[in-house]
């Protein structure tokens, strides 16, 4: 199987060369914040976090469960609002705590 190197355009290589020229974290923060939207930056950070966790031996399902639990308990309250609303409407597939058993 031959690797597809078509992604290695002059622009991509110039980007890599620019990144390699960054002198410290402060320069990296400034450059990447200007280069990427906040969502793109967070997506890249999340991918790197997941790669590190997978490499440490965690399974993807465990990682996903951790992230969802974190947002459920420490997020903006959106999950809790809709879960409580669904529970009150009787549309949740199981009662509180049943999924943990």
Give helix and strand order, one letter per element, not per position: HHHHH
How widely separated are the two ends?
46 Å
Give average pLDDT, whole number. 88
Report low-confidence residues grouped into runs of 5 or more.
none
* General form: elongated
Largest sheet: none
Proportion of β residues?
Answer: under 5%
What class would the helix/strand composition place it in? mainly alpha
Helix content: 55-70%
Number of strands: 0
Helix tally equals: 5
Radius of gyration: 21 Å
Describe the structure.
- The protein is built from five helices and no strands.
- Helix content is 66%, strand content 0%.
- The protein has a domain at 36-100.
- With 101 residues, the chain is mainly alpha-helical.
- It has helices spanning 10-20, 25-35, 38-55, 60-74, 78-89.
Task: Spell out the key features of this protein.
single chain; 101 residues; 5 helices; mainly alpha
Helices, strands, pairings?
Blueprint: H1 10-20, H2 25-35, H3 38-55, H4 60-74, H5 78-89
Summarize the structure.
66% of the residues lie in helices and 0% in strands.
